Amino acid sequence: MKDKFCVIMAGGAGSRFWPFSRNERPKQFLDFLGTGSSLLQMTYNRFRKIIPAENIYIVSNRIYRDLIMEQLPELPEGNVLLEPTRRNTAPCIAYAMNRIAKVSENANVVVAPSDHLILKEDEFLDTIQQGFDFVSENDALLTLGIKPSRPETGYGYIQISEGDGLLRKVRTFTEKPNQEMAKIFMDSGEFLWNSGIFLWSIPAIRKSFETLLPEMANKFKQGTEVYGTPREQAFIDEIYPLCHNISIDYGIMEKAPNVYVLCSDFGWSDLGTWGSLYDLSPKDENRNVSNRCQAMFYDSKDNIVVMSEDKLAVVQGLEGYIVAESGNALLICKKEEEQHIRQMVNDITVKYDGKYN
Amino acid sequence: MKDKFCVIMAGGAGSRFWPFSRNERPKQFLDFLGTGSSLLQMTYNRFRKIIPAENIYIVSNRIYRDLIMEQLPELPEGNVLLEPTRRNTAPCIAYAMNRIAKVSENANVVVAPSDHLILKEDEFLDTIQQGFDFVSENDALLTLGIKPSRPETGYGYIQISEGDGLLRKVRTFTEKPNQEMAKIFMDSGEFLWNSGIFLWSIPAIRKSFETLLPEMANKFKQGTEVYGTPREQAFIDEIYPLCHNISIDYGIMEKAPNVYVLCSDFGWSDLGTWGSLYDLSPKDENRNVSNRCQAMFYDSKDNIVVMSEDKLAVVQGLEGYIVAESGNALLICKKEEEQHIRQMVNDITVKYDGKYN
Fold this sequence. Notes:
Mean pLDDT of chain A: 94
Oligomer: homodimer
Number of strands of chain A: 17
Largest interface: A-B, 34 and 34 residues
């Protein structure tokens, strides 16, 4: 199918994984699981099996251009779309959709984050194919929902409408629930994890932008003449900073009337927290995880230790901690307090003027 | 005084300070306090003020020869005495005494560890001078006792005899006391910390060895002809491994009838534990210590963090821990469990075949 396109969003700063993830090389560019490929490379290679390289676009911050070209040498240089500044996912997607429209006005597009983990690739690709089939025939915005395997409080949920089959109308998107609510969600069978992977046709998403984010849609429309020309970057650099900082979820998906979900199960994790990496990792008899490095544990349990391959950690008397060391920085933090890591990184940025970012 | 000599014992493995202290560069060779000098250099420079370089001897393991020559370039090469293997302090001292006897039969000698901290140098040198005066005129073994400033359970104590003045006969040496006993010791005014710094004349210590460790004395006596000649090292390499592994305290000081103590107060610490380094170090408002590195603490107190100068540690939710990182290893251990570090280092040695020692 020549009109299948893919947009991989790779502009995140990954500060929740500091110090392993750094400003100059965030999470998506790291060989996070020690497999020999970065998360971005794994994401690209996955889509590459069903989509030709020239139809795959990466959107990222301009500072990561060289990293992307280095990690994806096969990718045409013009398929790297560079944001001059961070503005969340709605402007990022608006840019990519306008650019693809210039190439193929009726393209069907899958949009995916670059830093998620997918364990069952065959199931994933089948799901994407089903999604393409659906959006190519319907004026619909489709999101992939994941059957919950545990009452996770770190994810947003999607409530589905009643009916049969795997394709359902979305009833509501929900915020991250508390533990009790997450359990109710899971037991009900009506709620799926929101994966943040979307499919739609160019006409369908264009109409949604024009209706729900008209100001933004208008900004990008002004560039119709320049997309794909040498003037594109200057145009983007000018209008991008003027866009509202807003997510596609909040700006479009939660408000559009034609949003559907495809119920999926392909071993997905957003790898959004140290906790999720801990959950996914093999554990010793005291449920300690050591990622990449050597580690010896004494009177310790439920910890995750991540250091580089050549290092040894000796840990005594810790329970439920993250120990992460990379380059010039070490973090020790209770797993249950990891939502504060982002703030700590802010503190560090201010105090040390970016030296340890 | 030409007959004043000094022996600095620098053969320790320093494994209690792993990973900061490593097999190939133990504690005494490290700039432990970030002053720009190693503990050995500080010790040498202190004695150098009252003793000429040619009268200062360093006894250490053969593997540290180059380190010593590098750190003490002024020292005559022949003044580095090399043990082929570790045999505790009695053989080390027997060797040094025999060697010095060859140069000066009636020398007065101070013997000191290389890795102690002394804050009040003037008081220390005055004390050493008083000690030399005493041992040059008396057939006595003198040890320096330190007026306790706290009920420390990490040190051995010396009970002094009744009397006036700072020079007293030793009544008993004691093992490390428990907390309650340490408090009684301190309150009594009769107990001093055992510093492990000794003074004596060659004739006095020779007599003690001949009486209390005759087998060892005899071994070293056989080399009288070779000390100071090119055959010395081969002789030492042959007899040293045959010596009993025994400390000078246990072998001589606790048994000799003529042991005296000079009551001293020169800001001494044996720097024997992370806890002692913690106690000595400046602290923030939550009693956290960061040594060399940068550190940021959240919900944390009573910790000591030691990493290299260019590093940052971010510590959340820790209380009373040691965090020490150097080279290819990181240690996290409760301060109160640090007596087990030595065992952990043994475990590491076995498991990783010395890779992290």
